[in-house]
Amino acid sequence: MKTELDPNIQRFMTEMTAAWARHGDLSAVSHAEARRIAEEVRAPWARGGPQMARITEHTVPAPGGPVRIRCYDPGPDVTKPALIYLHGGGWTLFSLDTHDRVMREYASRADVMVVGVDYALSPEAKYPIALEQVVAVVRFLGERGTELGIDPLRIALGGDSAGANLAISACLRFRDEGYSRLIRAMVLNYGVFDRRSSGESQRRFGGPGNMLTSEEMKGFWRNYLRDDRDADDPLVCPLRADLRGLPRALLVVPECDLLTEQSVQLADRLAAAGVSVTLEMYRGAVHSFLEAVSIAPIADRAFADTASWLRNEAARTSGNRRTM
C-alpha cells in the first residue's frame, strides 16, 4: 500500500532534496566541504522561531577537547527545568546552528532551558568521543547547572537521529555507573538505534529521493565506528542493550522514514523492560520533519505534543530528590 506524504512535508522534502542535488555528489568532497554545504542547505529552515530572553554560550571540559554548549532561556529569570538537546546528522554533519529553530521551539513551548551540545563530529572523532563529551556535559550541568539557571533535579536529555542515539546511550552509561537519576526523561526524535537493517521501513523509505537513504546511513556508520566490532557494543546499538532502569521516554516517530521500525522496536523493548514510554507516530511525516515547522502544521503539532509531555514530566518530578 502506498503511503501518502503530508502535502506540506512533501514540499519540505522536495525543496530540501533539490537543494542537496544542486551541490552534486557529496561523497566526492571533503568532510569539511560536506559540512559547509549541509549548513547552507539547512539554513533556510533554521531561521526564525520564538525570541529568547537570552542566549549564552559556555565551554565544558570533556574528553577530546572542550565542548561548546549553547543555552536558550525563554525567560523570565527564574530557575527552570532543562532539555539537553543533541543535534542529528549521522554523527558527521550539522551543528547548533542547523538546529537553532528546533531548540528555540522547545524552549519557548515547554518553558525549559534548552542546552545544545556542540559535540565532536566523525570521522575525525570516532566512537566513543561524542558520547564521552555528552556524558561530560550532562555531569557538568548536574553539578553546576544552578549557575546557569537550571534546576538539576529536572533535566531531560534528547536529540534527533544520531543525537537520539547519543541520548539513550548516555542514559545507559549513567545507569551502569550508578547515576540513573541524573536524567529524568528522554526525548528521542526519529533515532537510529541499531546498525542492522530496519526491515520493511528501510525497503520502503530508504531509497534515493528520501530524506535519509540507506546508502547515507551506511556512510554515517562507517564514519562513526572505529571498526565493525563497535557495532556489538550496546552503547553504539542500544536496541541490543538491557534497557531496564532507564528514564521515562518519549519517542517522536515519522511514518515515512527508514528508521521508523527501529523506534517502534525500541518502544516495545523499553515497555517490556518496565520503562514508561510514549510513542507518538506522525502520519505522512519524514525524517527531519520537525525542521519544517515554518510551513507544516504536523511539525507544529509534534512540537506541541513534546512540549506538553516535557511540562508534565517537569511537574511530576518537581521537588523530588535524586540519589547521586
Domains counted in the coordinates: how many? 1
Count of helical regions: 9
Kindly report the CATH topology: Rossmann fold
Helix proportion: 25-40%
What proportion strand?
A: 15-25%
CATH class: Alpha Beta
Task: Walk me through the structure.
The chain is 38% helix and 19% strand. The longest helix has 21 residues, at 297-317. The termini are far apart. The chain has helices at residues 7-21, 31-46, 100-110, 129-144, 162-176, 200-205, 214-224, 260-272, 297-317; strands at residues 54-60, 67-73, 80-86, 113-118, 150-160, 185-189, 248-256, 277-286. An 8-stranded mixed beta sheet has the order 1-2-4-3-5-6-7-8, sandwiched between helices. It has one domain: Rossmann fold. The model has no long low-confidence stretch (mean pLDDT 96).
Short description:
38% of the residues lie in helices and 19% in strands. By secondary structure, it is an alpha/beta fold. Strand 1 and strand 2 form a beta hairpin.
Short descriptors:
single chain, 324 residues, alpha/beta, Rossmann fold, eight-stranded mixed beta sheet, 9 helices
Topology, please?
Elements: H1 7-21, H2 31-46, E1 54-60, E2 67-73, E3 80-86, H3 100-110, E4 113-118, H4 129-144, E5 150-160, H5 162-176, E6 185-189, H6 200-205, H7 214-224, E7 248-256, H8 260-272, E8 277-286, H9 297-317
Parallel strand pairs: 3-4, 3-5, 5-6, 6-7, 7-8
Antiparallel strand pairs: 1-2, 2-4
Helix pairs in contact: 3-9, 4-5
